[in-house]
Amino acid sequence: MSIIYSESSGENAISENVPRTPGLQSNEDGTSTTSTSSTVRCLDKSTSTENSASEEFVSNLRVPQHTVDQETESACGPNLLPRDSLNLLENCLPQPDIDSNYDVLNVENVDSHMNFSSDSSEDSSEDEISLDEDLGKWVNQFNIPHNAVRDLLAKLRPYHSTLPKDPRTLLKTKTDYNIVNLAGGSYYHFGTENSILVELQSNPELDIAAVQNVTLQLNIDGLPLFKSSNAQFWPILARTVQPYNSKPFIIGIFLGEHKPTNVQEFLQAYVAEINVICESGIKVPETNHIIGIEISCVICDTPARAFVKQVKGHSGYYGCDKCVQRGFYINHRITFPDTRANLRTDVQFDEMIHEEHHIGRSPFMDTPIGMVSQFPLDYMHLVCLGVMKRLLWLWTKGPVSVRQGRQFISCISRRLADITPYVPREFLRKGRSLNDLDRWKATEYRNFLVYTGPVILKGILPTDMYNHFKIFNIAIYCLANALFYRHYLNFAHELLVAFVDQFGHLYGEDQYVYNVHGLVHLADDVARFGELDNYSSFPFESYLGQLKKLVRKPNAPLQQVIRRLSEKKAKFVQSMYIPLSGSVKKKHNNGPRVNEYQLYGQYQEITLTNMFISIKRGDNCILSGEKVGLVRNILSPSEDSLERIFVVQWFRGGQSCFYCDPLHSSDLRIFKVFHLNDHVSTIQMRDISSKCVLLPYRDQYVAIPLMHSFF
Ligand SMILES: [Zn+2]
């Protein structure tokens, strides 16, 4: 069994300013202690209060009490927006006269988290192309129906006689394909080797002759097609994670009125190919050299994972993928209260030692893929749509003993609205009211959990629940952070075990459900595959959404997808190219200028590979070392220049921690800030450590580094 350990940049790893042992630890006498080390002093008056409150939380882990935080205000507390200080802050400098309206992000142009490089025609770097190629690209980009294309071609042909009459000729639509009937539906196989080669060949930045090995992630999931019928796709997807992170691509697709009735039939062609390419590699036609193929992991939601592994589902007594405990039936659900049960192993799975866990033989057992170790629990479904959604549901609609009432909902909703102007472009959605909770997307739950929740809930949620949520937030922030996760792996694991242990005490013994319990296994997967977003369903879900849009009418959806994808492969090679220096846009003349760079052009925004920075609120907060500041202008000799200068107004020294337990927030580069300097200074792009979310908090602000923007 081959296990692929994800590489990450370790150069910037935290060292001395990390607790030697996790902040939450049990002494031999059973009491708990907290870590106190930090490189940043906590200067605010609330530090001692927070420390004692936190210590009380730790010592009270076993006896939760529903007391409201001392900071809780009578109604909703002081407005989260420090309006006076905001004005002060924003008025410290003459502001450029720039339209304050926020750009509405075209979600279609952005990958699941923060890939600004995809799908944008403006980023394209290709050389001159012909009219029909250009038209084909446009048709695919905007998903233009064929009858409209046919009409357009008829109008253009008198002026451009070389254009074809038929849109299928223009788009090189595949008209010869072999759909087979299997597993109670129909199936088309694009082919693993072919799909990998198309992906590699479509990357203009890749020197394919230099590629020796490719590592793949696989994904299998169901995709309902129409509300009015049971028709559903079961696409088999993959993406490369070495030598680069690609967008997902399709290998095979099943169409039926239900999921495939026979998993062996469904995956037969796929598994056979996996075995061949893992054994022999794939041959590149242009160079005749062989590229070795490895499988990193298979990413699925819980029902799909149980289906392809042929094991009991999350509602089975032996439903945990990772440990052998027998669940308990409480209030019509299966619960898994044991956080330290014996773990399953690949060998035990292959030998089917725990018979009660299996419902059949998985076709993946005939591949080199580890049936336990290489089927990670998915962050998007388990954490965001699982536990975070459950917590919000418990607080708003749960049993009377834990529900927080209408005032809580209106208060949180108001705070969510208040922070809207501070939401960075990477969030995709600006945050909706708790009244719209049923319509929240996975990214909204993620943003609430990782960034906004701790600020929004503080002072409103009862202290025991808030502190419980906070350790969940910190653990996930650590595990989702490319810079921190290795260092905090054990710490985050202990936090999650404490969080799960307490979940039942706070919210009821019937809440130890599969998703909540699964958190205790999360750190093991992170150790194997890297930070949480490195192996999540987010990019695959994004692709499935695009796949669904290819179906324009109910008739023959499988044929439609095959044709549309063949057109995209022929015409719509997506560029991943963004210059190392970033792409500057929106030239202006409003300053502030700096004498040294008088002749440089001024720009409002810059798109980098891993972040978007603008001089507008929400996208202008950056971290450099441990200094937080606001970008006031972006200077460059020209759009093509490698030199980018950022004019920054820094927050004054004395930045303090937002929390000090179970570790100092400054250890995670999270700071409370307030006073801005009166003057600006300049830094180079290489001096930026990360972009931050800057959230108003009482009369101050909390700066939280965006996890994927670390340099
Ligand atoms: Zn388990």
Tertiary shape? globular
* Uncertain segments: 1-127, 570-577
Approximate strand percentage: 15-25%
Major sheet details: 11 strands, antiparallel
Bound molecules: zinc ion
- Report, as a whole number of angstroms, the end-to-end distance: 34 Å
Q: How many DSSP H or I helices?
A: 18
Overall number of strands: 23
Alpha-beta content class: alpha+beta
- In terms of quaternary structure, what is this? single chain
**Whole-angstrom Rg:** 27 Å
Give the proportion of residues in helices: 25-40%
Mean pLDDT: 79
Task: Please tell me about this protein's structure.
The protein is α+β, with helices and mostly antiparallel strands and 711 residues long. Among the domains are: 43 residues, no CATH class; 156 residues, no CATH class. It contains 18 helices and 23 strands. The strands form four sheets. Strands 13, 14, 15, 16, 17, 18, 19, 20, 21, 22 and 23 form an eleven-stranded antiparallel beta sheet that branches. Strands 3, 4, 5, 6, 7, 8, 9 and 10 form an eight-stranded mixed beta sheet that branches. The radius of gyration is 27 Å and the shape is globular. The two termini are 34 Å apart. Bound molecules: zinc ion. The site of zinc ion (ZN) has 7 residues, from loops.
Brief sketch in words of this structure:
With 711 residues, this protein is an alpha+beta fold. Helix content is 30%, strand content 17%.
Secondary-structure map:
Elements: E1 25-26, E2 32-33, H1 46-59, H2 83-91, H3 131-141, H4 146-156, H5 167-171, E3 180-182, E4 185-189, H6 192-201, E5 213-220, E6 223-224, E7 232-242, E8 249-256, H7 263-280, E9 282-283, E10 290-299, H8 302-309, E11 328-330, E12 333-335, H9 346-350, H10 379-397, H11 405-418, H12 442-457, H13 463-479, H14 489-507, H15 514-518, H16 522-529, H17 538-549, H18 557-571, E13 583-588, E14 601-607, E15 612-614, E16 621-624, E17 627-636, E18 645-650, E19 656-657, E20 671-673, E21 681-684, E22 690-697, E23 700-705
Parallel strand pairs: 5-10
Antiparallel strand pairs: 1-2, 3-4, 4-8, 5-7, 6-7, 7-8, 9-10, 11-12, 13-14, 14-15, 14-17, 16-17, 16-22, 17-18, 18-21, 19-20, 20-23, 22-23
Bound molecules: zinc ion.
